[in-house]
Structure to design on (146 residues):
């Protein structure tokens, strides 16, 4: 078996499986265009629009979710009268250690990125070793439980 397997190819790019990596390669455009290579997740789900997740696989073949990055609509700006103009929000969630716990119950929101703020949802430790519960820079930080 080859170390590289072509999955799909178009005039503008190619998708390959290379060993344990999925490789998306954009081709040079004949007209000199500059459109970047991209991976797009699309969903009609009003909750999470897309998720990139990471799992650890044990020797017995079972696995455990470790964390994910979730894109969703920022409900603070959802306008039912203008459904084609939503505002995006990204959340980073990591699994915390809970002996015998369930995957979904073990996730902790760590970071939230919005168009008008970045929210640190867990305590922040600086490299100097000083720890604080909340850092406020240039505005009020929302309730991390929201």
């Amino acid at each position: 078996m080859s170390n590289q397997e072509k999955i799909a190819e178009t005039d503008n790019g190619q998708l390959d499986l290379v060993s344990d990596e999925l490789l998306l390669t954009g081709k040079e455009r004949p007209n000199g265009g500059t459109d970047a290579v991209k991976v797009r997740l699309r969903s009609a789900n009003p909750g999470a629009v897309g998720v990139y997740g990471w799992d650890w696989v044990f020797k017995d073949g079972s696995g455990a979710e470790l964390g994910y990055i979730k894109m969703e609509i920022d409900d603070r700006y959802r306008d039912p009268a203008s459904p084609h103009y939503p505002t995006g929000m990204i959340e980073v969630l990591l699994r915390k250690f809970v002996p015998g716990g369930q995957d979904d119950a073990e996730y902790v929101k760590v970071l939230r990125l919005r168009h008008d703020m970045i929210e640190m949802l867990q305590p922040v430790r600086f490299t100097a070793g000083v720890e604080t519960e909340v850092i406020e820079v240039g505005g009020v930080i929302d309730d991390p439980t929201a």
